[in-house]
Amino acid sequence: MRDDVLTSKLAGFGTTVFAEMSALAIKTGAINLGQGFPDTNGPSAVLDVAVGAIRAGVNQYPPGLGEPELRVAIAEHQRRWYGLTVDADTEVVVTAGATEALAGAMLGMLDAGDEVVLFEPMYDSYQAVIALAAATPVPVLLQPDSDGDIWRFDPAALRAAITDRTKLILLNTPHNPTGKVFDRGELELIAELALEHDLIVVTDEVYEHLVFDGAEHVPLATLPNMFERTLTISSGGKTFHTTGWKIGWMTGPVELVSAALLAKQYLTYVNGAPFQPAIAVGLALPDDYFTTLRSNLQVARDRLADGLDRAGFVTYRPEASYFVTVDVRSARPDGDGMAFCQSLPETAGVVAVPAAAFYMHPEYGAHLVRFACCKQLDVIDAAVERLVAAFA
Ligand SMILES: Cc1ncc(COP(=O)(O)O)c(C=O)c1O
């Protein structure tokens, strides 16, 4: 076999660390706090619609833009939570998860040599889809402040990252893995730079409903003059405990949605027909569904973060999302988070993910490890007990 089978665009990308760590969890029977997926079902009102849709024959290709009832529900969701007006016929497209919307956006908008400014650490698909588009990611570092709970970037570093090759800023808020919610001041700076340099912004807001302690998620598209240049991406997986359904969407001005749709239609074309009406029902659930979702997860966040504190780690308590990050140097003075995670199933019977996987410069995050808190409390308690026994 020739030795250049893999496209050079993907040189340096291997099996994801999530697959490696999940395999370790299965092999060792350890408690898996690695990959971020909930271990309980979502609302039965949502599940029942999907079951009924399959039985009723909603099993063929949905329309290319997505089922109209879901597109209307997405438009209504943007109005209800953020006061944004989007046209369900032209400014909303349903995708195979947020992941496909991101891929569609990068492949549909970027040319070879274009630069994408983004924040590191970052969700692991970003680098790969930018590489597939033959474009160049330019990272700006997020670091915890002195209290350790708010992650910040240096505004001068953001300014300096923008060159005349920059076409796009890719922003994830609320942020994985840090749990940061970009505040209004930070968003204003991003908006100012986008307007000054005529940049497109693609935002990944999949954790939009999972914010804690009264923090406010502000979509960048709501800032003055930003709707026109922002493609907003989200999905139902986190909000309705349906990560395996892969129903996502993008909303924004026709020019941006159309460019991303053009690439998207050659990726999957369409997906998930019977799940689309179910997510439409989910998006229309009353407010207390969403408030209970976030308050339950906040309890789980506290339970895990308190436990990790007790186990002796420096713990970064997230403002949002599924994840709690720790500095493992109390347990592993060499700060090798990867080695820590590889041995964790054996030393403590728990699986976590090395945060280095989220960095373009792994050395910045080598000592950090991410634990998922989107699990039942007794699962978190059992994991904490093991970690305290092993490390406290
Ligand atoms: C920041 C971020 N974006 C996108 C995704 C994937 O979303 P989806 O499952 O809808 O493709 C995840 C999942 O973990 C994520 O953390």
Describe the structure.
This protein is α/β, with parallel strands linked by helices and 392 residues long. It folds into two domains: 8-42 and 288-391, Aspartate Aminotransferase, domain 1 (Alpha-Beta Complex), CATH 3.90.1150; 44-285, Aspartate Aminotransferase, domain 2. It has twelve helices and 15 strands. Helix 1 runs parallel beside helix 11, helix 3 runs parallel beside helix 9 (275-283) and helix 10 packs parallel to helix 12 (377-391). The chain is globular. The structure holds pyridoxal-5'-phosphate.
- Which hetero compounds are present in the coordinates? pyridoxal-5'-phosphate
Count of alpha and pi helical runs: 12
Shape: globular
Assembly level: single chain
The strand line-up of the biggest sheet is: 2-10-9-8-7-3-4
Element string (H = helix, E = strand) = HEHHEHEHEEEHEHEEEHHHEEHEEEH
Brief synopsis:
This protein is of the alpha/beta class and 392 residues long. It has twelve helices and 15 strands. The chain has two domains: 139 residues, Aspartate Aminotransferase, domain 1 (Alpha-Beta Complex), CATH 3.90.1150.10; 242 residues, Type I PLP-dependent aspartate aminotransferase-like (Major domain) (Aspartate Aminotransferase, domain 2, 3-Layer(aba) Sandwich).
